[in-house]
Design a protein that fits this description.
The complex is a heterodimer of chains A (about 230) and B (about 230).
Chain A: H1 3-15, H2 18-23, E1 27-40, E2 45-58, H3 64-67, E3 68-84, E4 89-99, E5 105-117, E6 122-134, E7 140-152, E8 162-176, E9 179-195, E10 198-209, E11 217-229
Parallel strand pairs in A: 1-11
Antiparallel strand pairs in A: 1-2, 2-3, 3-4, 4-5, 5-6, 6-7, 7-8, 8-9, 9-10, 10-11
Chain B: H1 7-19, E1 22-24, E2 27-29, H2 35-38, E3 44-46, E4 48-53, H3 60-69, E5 76-82, E6 85-94, E7 97-104, E8 109-116, H4 123-136, E9 139-150, H5 153-166, E10 189-200, E11 203-212, E12 217-223, H6 229-232
Parallel strand pairs in B: 3-12
Antiparallel strand pairs in B: 1-2, 4-5, 5-6, 6-7, 7-8, 8-9, 9-10, 10-11, 11-12
The chains are: A mainly beta (about 230), B alpha+beta (about 230).
Amino acid sequence: MRTKHWLFLGLLILFGPMQPAIAQSSFELGFLPAININRKFDQGWGLNAKVESRALLRQPAVDQESAWDPDYVLTDFILLGSRKVGLAHSVAAGYVLRLRPGDNAHRTVQQFTAVQPLTGVRLAHRVSSDQTFSEQEPPVFRLRYRLVAEWPLSGQELDPREPYLKLGNEYLQAWQANSTDLEIRAIPTLGYAFTDNSKIELGLDYRVNSFLSGKTEHTLWTALQWFITW
Amino acid sequence: MSEGFSHGVLLNLMNTIKHKIYTYNKVVILICSGIFLFSPLTAQVKFEQERRITEQVVPDSARLVVEAISSGSRIKWYQEQRLEGISFEAKYALEGRQYSVEFNQQGVLEDVEIALKWKEVPQPASVGMEAHFDSTYLRHRLRKVQEQLSGSLPAIQEHWQQWSATNPVDAGGGANSHILVMDTLKKVMLRYEVVVQVRTAEGPALHEVLFDEQGRMLQTATILLRNTDNLAY
């Protein structure tokens, strides 16, 4: 399949689900821009700094007109320290400062990532846990597993100035006070590698949660992320 | 067909490597051209960049060769940028095996690579390879094994037909019990290319090691892994 066919398929994935999603009132629609900066040090140590914002474009409402109500949600400032523990495996831990109107939150994060560089595809398994604390809500404890697959769209390996397709699937189990919740995410993304150390990705981040309690909530984010390593 | 590393080709390769310095967004890849020839334990860095191409841009001579030997299999063509220059590579699967046929920029056949399982590597070679891995690395794990054949196309085909008849796919048998076909080796140059994940005193690494038909190490290159930050975070 040629590159242009993959790009068309990618655009279909990006924008296809939006129309039916918009028609249903339980859907939230938003924009998720982020910049992800990484620094490598000797002995396999590294630092990851990320700033990610959220802005809702559409929220659940009684009528379609009032549903479209752009609103700023929050900004996360993330700092993780990492260490390579194998050829392509790493552990990381760090802190997240969540700034949101009315109530900021603090989160601690721990994660282990294993990357499998196969022929024609790279798979990444990420297992993580996080603990979120804020003044107005009980602490939230989460366990997460994410599987990401990356396919170069030209050649068998991703080279500079080439596009790629990335598909992710994540499961998040949360515990807060006496309640639990399971969130499932699907993350289809089209990316472009300017160089091996500079990549930009545009895609969807579809999240569904609270379906165990019968009040299913859907959120569809358009995610734009820039990864820089120096 | 040349033995692959004739004096003229070798001199050309050294000069090419000496005079090509690649600057890539402030990352400079320097390869010491002659060192690996005289110091086999020094690993050079493997530089290879490929992109998928259509068969229309492939030299006719190369395209016709692959069409003749691939027996109708679906062929994927790639253009590779290496230190030595540009090459064309055709990849296809046939009867349970992965084949890779490489041509230079003019469409002249360079080599044929056939993916093998470790147990299909004949014993003289496998014993030599294992001895090299055990003596060089703290730990190792094989990732990929390929047989690399250089020579005229008829000689390569004859060698492979004899080998396949003697060592069919899924024939079973013990490890490394496969037979090395010696007669046709006089007309083709046989090498084994092994990608191995290793652990040395400096830490983990991915190496591509080239061996001759007796399992003697010829060349080692370190494969640089692509950035994984967009997968981890």
